Amino acid sequence: MNAETQQRILDAVDAGFEAQLATTRDFVAIPSTRGAEGPCQDMIGDLLRERGYEVDDWHIDVEDLKDLRGFGPIEHDFSKARSVVGTYRPQTNAGKSLILQGHCDVVPAGPLELWDTPPFSPVVKDGKMFGRGACDMKSGTIGALYALDAIKAAGFKPTARIHFQSVIEEESTGVGALSTLQRGYRADACFIPEPTGGKMVRSQVGVIWFRLRVKGHPTHVAFAGSGANAIMAAYHLIQALQKLEIEWNERAKADQHFKTLDHPINFNPGIIKGGDWASSVPAWCDVDCRIAVLPGWSIADHQKEIMACVAAAARNHRFLANNPPEIEWSGFLSEGYELTNAAAPEAAFAKAFGKVYGGMPEDLVFTALTDTRFYGLNHGIPSLCFGASGGEMHGFNEFVELESLKKTTRAMALFIAEWCGVEKA
Fold first, then answer.
1. Which of 85, 161, 174, 203 is the most core-located residue (most Cβ within 10 A)?
2. Alpha-carbon dihedral angle through residues 286, 292, 295, 298, given to the nearest 10 degrees
């Protein structure tokens, strides 16, 4: 791809950026929390059809996925779950095929009064767009779409098959991405524009979700000593799991990538529910937890370690020794992933990056996970993850930096053109 072609594509990205931001605002304005992603998928389907893509919009059947590698259990109403894929088929097959994927599900906003502006009324100020999902990762999804638009607006068309995929469940199980693979979508490479601060994800953790179900013995609080407080017993188990977290972080010091980080394994008791009356010793407590694992670590083996940790802690507790807690696997059962065997797509992206940013992309050792794992682990499809800068993901006042978003879109457009090839339209 010559310099003139590159410049025309970059100019087209710049010319379309205001329209890109308007579409991003509309996308962020949809409150697509778990189970409510349908309107976002409707919007993506419409955007793809308007552009002439071949659209596949289907209901996800858990029965089709439950035996696949990386599947995590679904506990909520999944009756409206859908994946949407728009396919571009070239007139000339000369380049290499590509999957472009984004997820439209977002985490809950939390107490609305703690946001400076409403989370689903996106606001642009000080060079940033604020709103739930603005950073993670709706701006990246729309950026990928407008990167494709820029190639067309510059007078070119790709010479390889492209699948533009909008998935759900990235924040809790990953079965949206898994469903596209079960459906048969494949390519020579995958690119996911998660917000990475302009760095390329080299290695990422996997995640295990589990629920502690703890029983107590209720009494009036006036006679608390004769009962057993399930909430306090749950804290006893949490403290034991914090020690397991320390052990796993010691083990992480042997990993070639994660040894550079002080604390890559994070354990989080994220939801706690228990009891039913302030003057009654609580009879039950449920704690939903998340803990990370590193690439190459067996999910099954680490599930056993969690169970052994909880069992040992229970044996050292007056009440739990005879009333052992239960463990339920409640979402992610996801392996870590290291980007390997990706020399060709990385070289293509390096050219794009150099044109936009200068130099070479830096590696990112990522203490969260992305959907890239399914492509690399399940099917050997090299999966690049690179995106814009922002902040407060999963927190209050989430934002994406607009100049970073423009650069990311420029780099994506050039990467698509380099990897897939282009010809005059």
1. 174
2. -30
The number of helices, as runs of H, and strands, as runs of E, in the chain is 12, 19
Which ranges of 139-229 does DSSP label H, i.e. alpha helix? 139-153, 175-182
**For position 393, what pLDDT does the model report?**
97
- Say how many C-beta atoms besides its own lie within 10 A of residue 247's C-beta: 12
- For 215-253, write each residue's pLDDT tens digit: 999 999 988 999 999 999 999 999 999 999 999 999 999
pLDDT of residue 21: 98
Query: Which residues lie across from 363 on neighbouring strands?
Result: 200
Average pLDDT over residues 379-407: 98
What are φ and ψ of residue 124, in 5° steps?
Answer: -105, 120
Q: How far apart are CA 168 and CA 398, in angstroms?
A: 19
- pLDDT score recorded for residue 378: 95
Query: Could you tell me the pTM of the whole model?
Result: 0.96
Which of 198, 188, 119, 163 is CA-nearest to residue 363? 198
Cβ within 8 Å of residue 312, ≥6 positions away:
240
The tally of CA atoms less than 13 A away on the side-chain side of residue 330 is: 18
pLDDT above 90: percentage of residues in the chain: 99
pLDDT in tens, 188-214: 999 999 999 999 999 999 999 999 999
213: phi then psi, degrees, rounded to nearest 5: -115, 110
90 token code pair: 């070239």
Cα–Cα dist 291/206, whole Å: 9
Amino acid present at 66: K
What is the DSSP code (8-state) at residue 206?
E
